[in-house]
Amino acid sequence: MDKVVNSKRSRTKSAGSSLVNRPSRAEAEAAVRTLIRWAGDDPDREGLRATPMRVVRAYEEWFAGYNDDPREYLKRTFEETGGYDEVVVLRDIRFESHCEHHIAPIIGRVHVGYLPRNRVVGISKLARLVEVYARRLQIQEKMTAEIAACLDAVLKPHGVAVVTEATHQCMTTRGVHKTGVTMVTSRMLGVFRDHAETRQEFLSAIGMRGAIHVANGSA
Ligand SMILES: [Zn+2]
């Protein structure tokens, strides 16, 4: 992890531009103790004694995306593209996120495509972009749209396509207990939205030819 939450900082820039009042580390650990008691166990027994500390540290890693501005990762672009004017696709970017309704893991893959307008971005930066949004409390639809909007705003390409496939543990381990269910969301902007051919080119590159019908930009 390249960034660690500074526990002394009580106010921090959050997902939007709104400021969130962060509790102290001790308050966060106390909250975990409460949840352990709520589950029916004793937070003072040996096996659980260090758990609040570990959970709070895990939160720092899972939710590190609140400390990063995803646009920063896309700022360094390359303009020497050798006249390359075809679609760029990065597929199977694995991610782990947490649903904002149950704080349960969402695990899946994101496929990102764009049609550059003079400049391209390093592929590792696309993966970073996905990671920043994944490391926040999310719903899959919002994450898919945010990744697309950020790429579109910073790179100003001819178009952006993002498809996310994921399983939601709030659905597999609780509630309806349905395993093997994958949710697919997509956001198509610019040429990917307007030109069926360009969209199909992207979908076949990610192995989903014809799988997504774009009516309003999401599937
Ligand atoms: Zn959920």
Instruction: Tell me the structural class.
Output: alpha+beta
User: N- to C-terminal separation?
Assistant: 33 Å
Q: What is the number of independent domains?
A: 2
Give the tally of β-strands.
9
Share of residues in helices: 25-40%
Give the C-alpha Rg.
20 Å
At the fold tier of CATH, the topology name of the largest domain is GTP Cyclohydrolase I, domain 2
- Which strand-content bin applies to the residues? 15-25%
Summary tags:
binds zinc ion, two-stranded antiparallel ribbon, alpha+beta, 24% strand, disordered N terminus, five-stranded mixed β-sheet, 219 residues, 2 domains
Topology readout:
Blueprint: E1 11-13, E2 19-21, H1 25-39, H2 51-62, H3 70-73, E3 77-78, E4 88-99, E5 105-115, E6 120-121, H4 123-134, E7 137-138, H5 140-155, E8 159-168, H6 169-172, E9 183-190, H7 191-194, H8 196-205
Parallel strand pairs: 4-7
Antiparallel strand pairs: 1-2, 3-6, 4-5, 5-8, 8-9
Helix pairs in contact: 1-2
Task: Characterise the protein shown here.
It is a single chain. Mean pLDDT is 88; it is low at 1-14. The two termini are 33 Å apart. This protein has 8 helices and 9 strands. The longest helix has 16 residues, at 140-155. It is elongated, with a radius of gyration of 20 Å. Helices cover 35% and strands 24% of the residues. Zinc ion (ZN) binds next to loops.
